[in-house]
Design goal:
- With 567 residues, the chain is mainly α.
- Helix content is 67%, strand content 2%.
- It contains 25 helices and two strands.
- A two-stranded antiparallel sheet has the order 1-2.
- α9 (187-196) crosses α11 (209-225), α20 (448-481) packs across α21 (485-503) and α21 (485-503) runs antiparallel to α25 (560-566).
- The radius of gyration is 29 Å and the shape is elongated.
Length: 567
């Protein structure tokens, strides 16, 4: 059997090698099978089986290993046969389903590569819609795409189309439904990218505020991890754009709801600040576009910074309008309603300021490259400000606060060229504080700025700075040790979880997770974990029957985890 199959494979390869000399007759195709003609497809008659083959399934599989484009789009095979091919490749060699890029010995033109992707995308879109292709098949196919396989598979399916009923929708639904499963990686983020790529899908999915918040945070984490950065160009840039535009689209559609969620509870705005650093303040985002609803209800395109900035401006206007309570004129302190609105405004201001500082951390060299890049960054900062919409007091306050902020920002790189980020942070702080100050003056109501806004702003900025400094420390630690930052971040986050587990009194889980950490290839971190386990064992022997009420023992053991970070 092996000899026959080998002979058949050689015969099949011969067909492929000489296919450009064959003249093939194509019958009429159905709508689903209307795939662009490819002259490399072998001219097999339906049901044909070369010498040495016992099944058409094996013939098609061998064809796919030689040339996936010709195999999966070949109308000599039935749709059922091509569906089976996809399932077979998913189990055995899923990487074959991703058309190869051009190599230095490749005869294909750039246009032919585009056609190849389009053809495979259409055929794959049709195949995975078959009920026999399940979520496990889709997971295995994505695994064949490498570190960013889920997004690569999505992009390939989008070559074949999108919208309700498409393979894109089926794949996105499978990812979203399995987003909590450890084997599904960045499932929630990639599903959201799919949903946000099509207006009809975007309107019909993510139906609850909690789901939208999960989707938002998944995209923020995905763009922080940036798995697309490990890919080759131009695919890396294309997928970066896709992910950032998806996050901005979600925010443009549901920004007021998301802002309210992150500014209602103290210490919750770090995801919002990270999002702003990745989109609004990202120099790479200035040329990206977002589809938003215009004033007349139609869909219009906006540049990404303007789409995000418009939401921020409206949110600030809404908070000031909510605090503009006429019956408090001449009163000293704020009412409960005013306190609630201005506290939310303070947290929003901290997120906007924190996002700018995070962006400085990430893009400092790019921003400081020349005068044009510095001006470009200040333009992005300005996108989040501007005259507030509406009229009356809100409009007047917005205009005055904006003028003061822009005047300060225009001198940021002059006043402190070595650390303009300090000037920028101060200007953003004064902008939001200025909104409150002008309201207080307008209503002759003292105490709104320092007593309400100031305290909430300082509290929120402390939390953001702590998270920011931790992220910078982790990245620096990873760079110093020559280990990729995402891997190091994962290890250090694991240590944080261990410390929390010990504080909660879960001694068994603490030791078990430390042992797993010690077994990993973590350099000095691994050595520190091993030392901590040894110390844990020593203490266990000295105190064979610990008193559950003795909190000192738990605290002492919990404090061993941070020592690993310093190792």
């Amino acid at each position: 059997m092996r000899e026959r199959n080998s002979h058949g494979a050689r015969e099949t390869a011969g067909f492929l090698a000489g296919s450009h000399r064959l003249i093939r007759r194509r019958g009429s195709l159905s709508m689903e099978q209307s795939i662009m003609a490819d002259p490399r497809q072998p001219s097999f008659p339906p049901g044909y089986l070369p010498h040495g083959y016992d099944s058409r399934e094996q013939l098609l599989f061998d064809l796919a290993r030689t040339d996936i484009v010709s195999a999966i789009t070949n109308d000599s095979f039935t749709q059922d046969e091509r569906v089976q091919l996809v399932k077979d490749l998913a189990r055995k060699e899923p990487g074959i389903l991703f058309p190869p890029e051009k190599s230095f010995i490749d005869f294909r033109s750039d246009e032919q590569i585009r056609i190849d992707r389009n053809n495979v995308g259409k055929a794959l879109d049709v195949a995975i819609r078959d009920p026999s292709v399940d979520s496990d098949d889709l997971r295995k196919i994505a695994a064949g795409g490498g570190p960013n396989g889920q997004q690569r598979l999505l992009s390939l399916l989008q070559e074949g189309g999108g919208g309700p009923g498409s393979g894109v929708e089926k794949y996105a639904d499978a990812l979203w439904q399995n987003r909590s499963e450890p084997d599904y990686g960045n499932a929630a983020a990639v599903a959201t990218i799919a949903y946000m790529s099509d207006p009809k899908l975007g309107e019909g999915k993510l139906g609850t505020p909690e789901e939208r918040r999960q989707a938002f945070e998944a995209l923020v984490a995905f763009n922080e991890q940036a798995p697309y950065a490990k890919m080759d160009e131009p695919e890396a840039s294309q997928m970066k754009r896709q992910a950032l535009e998806a996050a901005a689209t979600l925010f443009a559609k549901h920004g007021p709801e998301l802002i309210d969620a992150y500014t209602t509870v103290p210490g919750s705005t770090t995801p919002l600040a990270k999002f702003l650093s990745q989109t609004l303040y990202n120099p790479d985002g200035k040329d990206m576009t977002v589809q938003v609803k215009g004033a007349d209800g139609t869909t219009v395109s906006k540049d990404l910074p303007s789409a995000v900035g418009d939401v921020l401006k409206q949110a600030a206007a809404d908070r000031i309008a909510g605090a503009d309570v006429s019956d408090r004129v001449g009163q000293d302190g704020p009412s409960r309603e005013q306190e609630r609105e201005l506290t939310k405004l303070a947290r929003l201001g901290a997120a906007v300021t924190g996002g700018a500082l995070m962006a400085w951390d990430a893009y400092k060299d790019e921003i400081q490259a020349n005068e044009e890049s510095r001006k470009g960054f200040m333009d992005l900062v300005g996108k989040g400000l501007g005259v507030l919409p509406g009229g009356g007091v809100v409009q007047e306050i917005g205009e005055e606060a904006t003028k003061r902020a822009i005047d300060t920002l225009s001198h940021a790189f002059v006043n402190n060229p070595n650390a303009p980020n300090v000037e920028i942070a101060g200007a953003l702080n004064r902008y939001y504080a200025g909104l409150v100050e002008d309201l207080a003056n307008k209503r002759n109501q003292a105490g709104l700025t320092s007593d309400t806004f100031g305290k909430a702003y300082d509290q929120e900025m402390s939390g953001i700075d702590r998270d920011r400094n931790m992220a910078r420390g982790k990245s620096a630690d990873a760079a110093t040790r020559g280990i990729e930052a995402p891997a190091r971040l994962a290890e250090l986050d694991a240590v944080d979880r261990l410390s929390a587990a010990m504080r909660n009194g879960d001694r068994g889980a603490y030791r078990q997770d430390l042992a797993a950490l010690a077994a990993a290839d973590g350099g000095q971190l691994r050595e520190g974990a091993s030392a901590t386990i040894a110390e844990h064992d020593r203490r266990a022997k000295e105190q064979a029957t610990p008193n559950p009420a003795d909190q000192n023992t738990q605290v002492a053991q919990a404090e061993t985890a941070p020592t690993i970070r310093r190792a």
